[in-house]
Amino acid sequence: MKVFIDPPNSLVLFDLVERFGHEPLSTMAAIQERVDNLEVDMPPMNVTLDDVVKGLKYAGVEVPSGIRGRMALWGPMIEEADAAIVMDDCPYSFGCVGCERSNLMVKYLIKRRGIPTLNVTYPESDEEATNFVAQTKEFLEALK
Amino acid sequence: MSEERETRLFMISPRSMLTPDQLVRMIHAFGKEAIVKETCYGCLVEGPRSLVLEIRDKVRENYRNEVFTKIRAYPCSDPRRCRAQHGTRPGFAQLEEEWQLLSKIQYGLEKVEEGAKYVPPQEKKRIPVNDFKKICEVH
């Protein structure tokens, strides 16, 4: 099954989803398509007109362009996903208008789709990490 | 996901005794025709998707809980990203942060293999007013 991970470029979540037998949907794969197939200078910093149109589906013209650009990458993946894992309170996942609003938008879209979702918190200790791995394993094994 | 080219990042957990050099030598010893580039955190492997997945599985056989992987969008030594050619490396701050987390995840994976189960955390309850009064009176 296709599992969307949030943060979408997380190494830990990508590895765990693959390890327990599912296909992770990540930013890297979306950017790789643009690197390999499109002649744009530096994706995701540079976008095509198609990306802008895709982004408009999720966020209007009045919202910051950073949100539209991110949603052009993540939106289609959320629609494609069969399940999702969301990690809350990541120390590297923060920001102001563009980054944080995109993160909130991703969480909202996942909730609106109604797919099976696991919400976990960023582990701060070994015991929390054990709990996190066990919880993720149980969730992913139950998806099969 | 592209079938033609896959670049995969292998990152070694800080709890492991494995070094990037040992990891790269091991991957070279598999005798596969893939590009392997040693980095400070592990290595990058690039080749056709099926070949890279084969290498990933072999690495997992040897170092199951010590090496973590994810795919990378840009190819190895791409001038837009490679530091040797003065490229930017915008994702490195996150990689560094996640590298610190890997030791905990390795511990977690080992415990789960030993049979640890998910234990829901205890719910926080409100203190009864009388208990709270006693605390206030002591201080």
What's this model, at a glance?
The complex is a heterodimer of chains A (144) and B (139). Chain A is an alpha/beta fold and 144 residues long. Chain A has helices spanning 11-19, 27-37, 49-56, 65-80, 97-113, 126-143, and strands at 2-6, 23-25, 83-88, 117-121.
How many individual domains of chain B?
A: 1
Largest interface: A-B, 40 and 38 residues
Q: Secondary-structure element sequence of chain A?
A: EHEHHHEHEH
What's the CATH first level of chain B? Alpha Beta
Overall pLDDT score of chain A: 90
What percent of residues of chain A adopt helix (DSSP H or I)? 40-55%
User: Rg of chain B from C-alpha positions?
Assistant: 22 Å
Main structural class of chain A: alpha/beta
Give the oligomeric state of the chains in this entry, treating copies of one chain as homo and distinct chains as hetero. heterodimer
- Any idea what the shape of chain A is? globular
Q: How many domains comprise the coordinates of chain A?
A: 1
Structure write-up:
With 144 residues, chain A is an alpha/beta fold. Chain A has one domain: Rossmann fold (3-Layer(aba) Sandwich). Helices cover 55% and strands 13% of the residues of chain A. Chain A has six helices and four strands, in the order E-H-E-H-H-H-E-H-E-H. The longest helix of chain A has 18 residues. Chain A is globular, with a radius of gyration of 15 Å. The N and C termini of chain A lie close together (8 Å). Chain B has 139 residues and is of the alpha+beta class. Chain B has one domain: Alpha-Beta Plaits (2-Layer Sandwich). Chain B is built from four helices and four strands. Chain B has a four-stranded antiparallel beta sheet with strand order 2-3-1-4, covered by helices on one side. Chain B is elongated. The N and C termini of chain B lie far apart (62 Å). The model of chain B has no long low-confidence stretch (mean pLDDT 91). Classes of the chains: A alpha/beta (144), B alpha+beta (139). Chains A and B meet through helix 1, helix 2 and helix 6 of A and strand 1, strand 4 and helix 3 of B.
